[in-house]
Amino acid sequence: MEKIDGQIIMNEFYEGSISDKNFLVTGGAGFIGGHLAEYLLKNGASKVRVLDNMVNGFESNIAVLKQYPNFEFIQGDIRNIDICNEACLGMHYVSHQAALGSVPRSIKEPVYFNEVNVGGFINMLKAATDAGVEQFVYASSSSVYGDEPTLPKQENRIGNCLSPYAATKKTNELYAQIFADVYGMKIMGFRYFNIFGPRQDPDGAYAAVIPLFVKGIMKKTPVYINGDGEQTRDFTFVDNAVQINVKGMLTKNEAAVKQVYNVAVGENFSVNYLYNICKDQLKSNWEATYREPRAGDIRNSLADISLAEKLLGYHPTKKFEDGLKETIAFFKEKYSVE
Q: Deepest of 49, 71, 183, 335, by most Cβ within 10 A of its Cβ?
């Protein structure tokens, strides 16, 4: 491995430069997509194009990317096939991160979630196929495990979906298999387990738990824990998600395509433990309020990451507590400026 500007280049399955390669990141104004696009730009990609409709994206993330001359931005919606075709032209690789998240929101808006997460996904698959994209990777979710109780979660054992959001991600995996088998697409999916890190949105009704906790503790506003707080999650720092997307797009290992991988650390912690760690790092005694469990939530989550380790050379570079320190440092700086 080598380092460029402090960034670790993960190239066990890929040797050479990406200076002649073009990448499309859908949802690149969002959290994971923004970090991925920045990584590719920092490490010398010929071109990094972002497609985002800015519904869940942020101008601040685009501002970070605009510093690089090899960055392009298309503001558009993946539900528009013409926009998808335009975005894929001339691209060697696609990382599809654009989607609607949130289990509770999907329960309220199942039709909207299907239109974006399934209809938009098929548009991107077709556009990438027609454009001759070399390799396509996409964001799935640990929610597809549903009511399957076995821990750790293994890719070949999934249960019944517990939410419309989970159903859209499971459907994505089915369509990915079809496009691999019928159209010969080189494709793989990533089941993310509670990705967190700097620049994750703490605002809005459906914000992720870590930025919600950190902001609430810092601002001394109400913080809620759903259920008893003993539910566990495999909290995964965003650098690990970036790593597997890069490896997935660039791998030459034929056995690695037509697969779906867990993206996690392989360790789980309770929500109560998470909250207490946040309080300790922020030197606060601000208490949370407990409320009813959320519909559609999985009780316990822990990933087996051995398949990604074996076929993609994936190795988490930052564990939960180190990643949390970096995340809290980001939000402390953010709110001290505001």
A: 49
